[in-house]
Design a protein that fits this description.
Oligomer: heterodimer
CATH superfamily of chain A: monomeric porin ompg
Strand content of chain B: over 45%
Number of domains of chain A: 1
Helix content of chain A: under 10%
Radius of gyration of chain A: 17 Å
Distance between the termini of chain B: 43 Å
Number of helices of chain B: 1
Number of helices of chain A: 1
Largest sheet of chain A: 12 strands, antiparallel, barrel
Distance between the termini of chain A: 27 Å
CATH class of chain B: Mainly Beta
Strand content of chain A: over 45%
CATH architecture of chain A: Beta Barrel
CATH superfamily of chain B: Cupredoxins -  blue copper proteins
Strand order of the largest sheet of chain B: 3-9-8-5-6
Shape of chain B: globular
CATH topology of chain A: Porin
Helix content of chain B: 10-25%
Strand order of the largest sheet of chain A: 2-3-4-5-6-7-8-9-10-11-12-13
Shape of chain A: globular
Radius of gyration of chain B: 17 Å
């Protein structure tokens, strides 16, 4: 698992699949993952994405909330389960899906030119026969106080209530490690119906021994007619 | 790029990474009684180094440093590798998150 060749082999396998897929439809603005696992860590997470004037929907505003509980199950593997709730400006809040996620750290931080990881996600809608599975390659490179992160994913959707198809999505983040409490960043999201770019603020406050609160907040603006005018994004993670 | 070229590229990259690793200086850091020993490690500037952290305590400890951008848990009675750098000259503090009052240290880059 930790050999020097395995991350590159997996990366080639993921990239080899990309040309056969189309870009993901719907918004792919969510969260940029980093390819690291902190052993023994538990995490309670809330994150929300709120789209304003999404072209695909009838509602002027659509929001997706995720509440998750995760745990590092080994030195290099982190698992998390989520409940997913959605609401629109013309509809109430409903919990309409669950999601399982596993993050696999493939290399030690700083060991190679890039740090590697893989993210596996499985989502099932509660009231519809819709499944979604994705594999995402996580890459990160430290450049002094800057960190550049890329998430490149292949998604497969299937079920009786959705057209079976492969899609791809990408997210890029450039982050400046100014201080633990405040790290400005710029994020770019790309999918079939998403071209969005915008600033983020990230930070972490230590609450005691082995306890920390991490947060992310920002806005990305749509760069074309198929993307929501703007999308607000926020994350709160309690680590313990 | 053809499949054969991809694999050739991957193999060459692996060799290059292997050679680079062979030249990576190694420094040892021990954890005993919730202390980092030595407290100060001097490493060369602009050079990636491998820090081998050996935890002799029975309890886990976490090597943490915002300045070095590293967080790594080392279970009791085990060791871990932490790659740091290349770094500009300066002093980079680190601490043990499980015992922050006693487990303190610094990497001095010269």
């Amino acid at each position: 698992m930790r050999s020097g060749n395995s991350p590159r082999g997996l990366m080639l396998a993921v990239f080899a699949a990309l040309p056969t897929a189309v870009l993901a439809d719907g918004s792919v603005v969510d969260k940029v993952y980093h390819p690291y696992v902190e052993q023994l860590e538990w995490e309670l997470e809330w994150r929300a994405v709120q789209e304003h004037n999404p072209p695909a929907g009838e509602a002027q505003r659509q929001a997706t909330h995720r509440v998750g509980l995760g745990r590092a199950v080994s030195e290099f593997l982190f698992a998390e389960a989520y409940l997913v709730g959605r609401e629109g400006s013309d509809s109430g809040f409903t919990i309409d899906a669950w999601e399982l996620e596993a993050l696999w750290q493939l290399s030690e931080q700083g060991e190679f030119l890039l740090d590697y990881g893989l993210l596996f996600e499985l989502e099932k809608y509660r009231h519809e026969e819709i499944w979604e599975y994705s594999t995402t390659l996580l890459l990160e490179r430290e450049l002094g106080r800057f960190s550049a992160t890329a998430n490149v994913g292949v998604i497969y959707e299937w079920g009786d209530d959705i057209e079976d198809e492969f899609e791809t999505a990408a997210a890029l983040q450039a982050r400046y490690r100014h201080s633990p409490l405040l790290e400005p960043a710029l994020e770019l999201y790309l999918g079939e119906d998403t071209r969005a770019l915008g600033p983020m603020l990230l930070g972490m406050a230590r609450l005691g021994s082995r306890q920390a609160l991490r947060w992310e907040a920002g806005v990305v603006w749509g760069l074309d007619a198929t993307t929501a005018d703007y999308t607000l994004r926020a994350v709160l993670e309690y680590e313990f | 790029m053809k499949p054969a070229q991809r694999w050739a590229c991957a193999v060459l990259c692996s060799f290059a990474v292997g050679m680079a690793q062979a030249r990576t200086p190694v420094f040892e850091l021990e954890i005993r009684d919730h202390l980092f020993i030595p407290e100060e490690i001097v490493i060369p500037a602009n050079t990636k180094v491998k820090l081998v952290v050996i935890n002799h305590d029975v309890t886990p400890e976490e090597f943490e440093s915002y300045e070095l951008n590293r967080e790594k848990v080392i279970l009791g009675g085990s060791k871990a590798n932490i790659f740091i750098g290349p770094l500009a000259p300066g002093v980079y503090p680190f601490f043990g998150e499980f015992n922050p009052r006693t487990a303190q240290g610094r990497v001095v880059v010269e």
